[in-house]
Amino acid sequence: xxxxxQALSFGTAAATYDRFRPAYxxxxxxxxxxxxxxxxxxxxxxxxxxxxxxxxxxxxxxxPVEPDPGMRAQLDLATPGTTALAGSAExxxxxxxxxxxxxxxxAYHWFDRERAHAEVARxxxxxxxxxxxxxxxxxxxxxxAELSRLLANFAGRSSVDTAPDLTSFGEWFEPLERAEFxxxxxxxxxxxxxxxxxxxxxxxxxxxxxxxxxxxxxxxATNHPDLAGLESFELPYRTTAYRARRV
Length: 247
Ligand SMILES: C[S@@+](CC[C@H](N)C(=O)[O-])C[C@H]1O[C@@H](n2cnc3c(N)ncnc32)[C@H](O)[C@@H]1O
Prior knowledge:
Bound molecules: S-adenosylmethionine
Largest sheet: 7 strands, mixed
CATH architecture: 3-Layer(aba) Sandwich
Number of helices: 10
CATH class: Alpha Beta
Strand order of the largest sheet: 3-2-1-4-5-7-6
Distance between the termini: 37 Å
Number of domains: 1
């Protein structure tokens, strides 16, 4: 499966994506921005605007940039007063030095890193911050570990949906800092199936394979000893945030 096909698969399920994907803990966003509101923020790979709306809610001015037209349409619909710009991490339609912070949620792993580092550095003012962030399921919880095993088997990888270990954003940035936060979202069996349906490896699978995965996830949510008999339950997350200052 080509990485590009997976990277650009999300727009086919934009409304579902917006409904089921988790937001980020506000403490993590405050840590990442590291300056009092309002700052000039770019939400890079903004998707349907989950992070955009949270940054707006914190009082920042936000320009969302997103390559997928389906995701941009959903963002515009769900974020009155905001229009997403067509662009990518490798090429943003923005002047030099305009942003105090460039944040990116659940997306840095899709970028051509060398080109993205140079482009983010161009858009940031000196001293501005680049801050990628990820929600990852907390696999220390047994049923969550089981869910992750099931998803990794489906995707044909040893693990899925985990934050990468990053060491540098290249020559334009000071050493990066990392912090972890926790939060949780409430689910039913139906919404857990809905959430899995927003993953790139699901979106690029055949209808038959999709049905197999949906049925396995529903079975887990209904019969795992931690969840059996519960109408709803919490899915715990660890949120990993990085930040680095532009030199
Ligand atoms: C998992 S979604 C994350 C969306 C949003 N940031 C969030 O937190 O919900 C990944 C997004 O990255 C976008 N994307 C993929 N490759 C990209 C690239 N090279 N530059 C910018 N965005 C990209 C996809 O179109 C998709 O909207």
